[in-house]
Write the structure tokens for this entry.
Amino acid sequence: MTATLRQTANAVASSMIEGASMATALIGGAAGAYLGYQLAPATWSDGARIAFAGAVAVVGAVAIDGLAELVLAPMRRTPFNVTHVSAPAPADNLDDALAQVANATEADAAHRAAGAAFCIDQGDNFLRDEDRWRGYEDGEASFYLAPGVWLHHRAELGKYGREHHFTLLTGDDEEPVVITGMEQIRHHLAARAASLPAVPATADGDVDRDDVLDDDLIGIHAV
């Protein structure tokens, strides 16, 4: 399941759970009000019977909601997941087995790239969309950004475990740009949109150039 689909499913499930909780509370309140009014002594005034029924309604709503929460609480803590597609049937020969593993490797590479993208895109609405990544048999993956521009991901085992590397690639003869944050991607695309040299953003040396790129990009968007 993709991140977007998972978020949507979780939102729908959460709404249904909250709706069920409200419904049980209303039912408990209505039942309590009815019983309270019926059980109140007939010698009481209508105002006293209504007040008693209201008090019983509150107790009934709280009690029923508490009982329902015993069932709903575990559901709140469990994220919604769609049943995974079953694996293909066992291969009849080595060539078919290799094809199955190659497809699985590509899917795995796309999944890992989308997950690792959290370190540069914590918005969970762009680079972490698994469907936008294309995995390859060597375990690497690419994300199409714009004509001639791709974000490349590869992982390797380092001293402290698996290390993820993101690089911006273009169809030109430009050097690949190491990417550690979304602002670098924005800077590079802004430079290309303004027909300016697509140099990587720096911490302090290119402040004026960044301002020019921002102004140019705003102008382009306004056209």
